[in-house]
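Reopening this one. Same input as before:
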Amino acid sequence: MTASAVHEALVGLLRERVELVPALVQRVIVGALPRFTVAQAAPADLTQAVSAERRADLVVLLRGASGAPMLCLVVEVQLTRDALERWSWPLYVAAARSRYQCPCALVVVAPDAVVARWASRAIALGPGASLRPIVIGAAAIPRVVDADAARRKPELAVLSALAHGAASYDVTRAAAAALATFVDEDRQRQYTTLVLDAIGTAMRARLENDMKLEHFPEPTDLEKRILARGEARGEARGEARGEARGEARGRAEGILHVLRTRGLDVTASVALRVRSCTDLATLDTWLERAVTCAAAEDIFQEA
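Same output, byte for byte:
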C-alpha cells in the first residue's frame, strides 16, 4: 500500500472505533482524561478557523452524563516526519477549542518508533507557551496475542499487528483471526493488506503456510466420515485431520491456480482468505465461481 493509502486506512480504522483513542491515551498518561460517558467522532474540518486543505484526521469528543463536551481530542495519524505538520497542529487544537468550548489535546498516532520520538517533542508557540502532543507509539499499543480477544476487538488487533506483528508471530496470528470478523469486504480487504504489508515478507510467508496447515478445532464432515470407519479414536482422528487438511489445501490451491491461469490478479489478501478456508463446500463454491468471475475477489460475492 502507498503511504497515503496506509494513512487513510488507519484514520478509517480509528474513526470506526473512536473509543480506542481515549483508551490508548490512558495508556500513555494514566489519569489524563476526565470521567466521561461517551466518546464520539465529531466534524474534523474545523472550517471556522482552518482551511479545508488543513483539516484534522479525526476529532473525538468526550462527553459527560449531561451531554456537554468535557475534552476534545484532535487526532493525527503520522507515518513520516513532516516539519510542516507541526506548524499546522496548533491550529487544529485552537480551532477545536473555540468550536467546542472545552479543553483540547493533540493526539498523534505514530506506529514507527522514530516518528513517535519526533512527534513527542513540544511545539513552541511563543515565549512561555508550548503544545506537547500525546503520542501513541508502538509502546502504547498493547500486544494482542489471543485469537478470541482479537475477534472481540478486531481494530485493536490490527493496530497491534502494525506495531508488533513483524517481531511477534503470536500477534500476527491473532490479527489474522480478527480480520475474518470484518463483515464489510472492502474494510476486510483494506485491513488485510495493511497487516500483510506491515509484518514483512518472512512473517507473511509463515502466516500463509500456517493457514494452509491449520488444525481444525472441531471434526469436519470429512473427518466424521473417516472416523465412522470404526478405526481407533486417537490415531484415526490424527489421520482424519491430515486427510481433511490435504483435501482442503488441494482445493484451495486449485482455486488460486484457476484464477492465475485466467490471468486474474490474485492479491495476498485473496490468497490468504482462500487458503484459510477449511470448509469443503465453500471451497467448491469458490472453485465454480473462479471459472467465470471477472475479478479474483468476485469468488467471495454471493449470487
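So the earlier flakiness isn't reproducible anymore. For the record, Residues 48-52, 215-227, 229-238 have pLDDT under 50 and may be disordered.
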